[in-house]
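Support request from a user on the community tier.

User writes: "When I paste my structure tokens into the form, the page sometimes reloads and wipes my input. The last time it worked, I copied everything first. Here is what I submitted, just in case something in the input itself triggers the reload:"
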């Protein structure tokens, strides 16, 4: 079921997956990677539904070229995506069918989910991260000297803007995330060419209640087999 949630001057578009025969159930909010979309989570969300878990997969405003919100990709940052997640969370918070709320994020969406969970530890029951982008701030600082951040640039065929880099330039990832006290499950492939496994290993060490599952042979963006494994273990 399509759902449109007002957020700023735009709307966040998502797909709500409702398990059959249940009036109240856990709900998972699903955060896609940079350049991804809600469609990336279709099979996983259906697996959740079969297990009696609801899911809401949504498109970040400006989070990829498939987004239809009208929000420019060049204005998107991790912090605008966190605002999107805030809008989504508030929309479902307190609705009669919602039991607990968990977050499920991939790559950049995983980083955004982790940032949000730190601020909402009393309201989020668990956090699931696939190859989370804990390296993003470090990689951007290495790529762009502070005085040479361009007004716009392309990353993975997506036009991004100066604020995408500048907003993270002084961001210390592992001072900002890692305190969320509830269960954290992290999946990471041992062949990931974009996010070093060491970042997830460090995260698993500093979260007080975390487990890291390393998928042999998987890269950045899992195969169908890897996604099925992640869905099963998440359930």
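"...and here is what came back when it finally went through:"
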């Amino acid at each position: 079921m399509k759902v449109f949630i007002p957020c700023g001057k735009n709307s966040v578009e998502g797909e709500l997956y409702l398990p059959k025969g249940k009036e109240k159930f856990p709900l998972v909010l699903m955060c896609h990677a940079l350049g991804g979309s809600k469609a990336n989570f279709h099979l996983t969300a259906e697996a959740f539904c079969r297990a009696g878990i609801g899911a809401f997969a949504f498109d970040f405003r400006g989070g990829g070229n498939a987004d239809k919100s009208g929000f420019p990709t060049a204005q998107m940052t991790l912090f605008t995506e966190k605002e999107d997640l805030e809008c989504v969370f508030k929309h479902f918070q307190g609705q009669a069918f919602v039991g607990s709320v968990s977050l499920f994020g991939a790559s950049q969406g995983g980083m955004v989910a982790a940032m949000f969970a730190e601020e909402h530890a009393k309201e989020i029951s668990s956090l699931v991260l696939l190859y989370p982008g804990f390296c993003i701030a470090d990689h951007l600082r290495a790529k762009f000297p502070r005085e040479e951040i361009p007004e716009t640039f392309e990353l993975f065929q997506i036009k991004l803007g100066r604020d995408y880099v500048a907003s993270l330039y002084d961001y210390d990832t592992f001072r900002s995330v890692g305190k969320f006290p509830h269960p954290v499950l992290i999946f990471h492939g041992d062949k990931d060419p974009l996010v070093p496994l060491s970042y997830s290993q460090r995260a698993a060490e500093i979260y007080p209640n975390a487990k890291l599952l390393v998928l042999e042979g998987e890269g950045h963006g899992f195969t169908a087999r890897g996604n099925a494994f992640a869905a099963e273990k998440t359930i």
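Agent notes: The reload is a front-end session timeout and is unrelated to the input. The two ends are 22 Å apart (CA to CA). The first strand starts at residue 2 and ends at 7. Escalated to web team.
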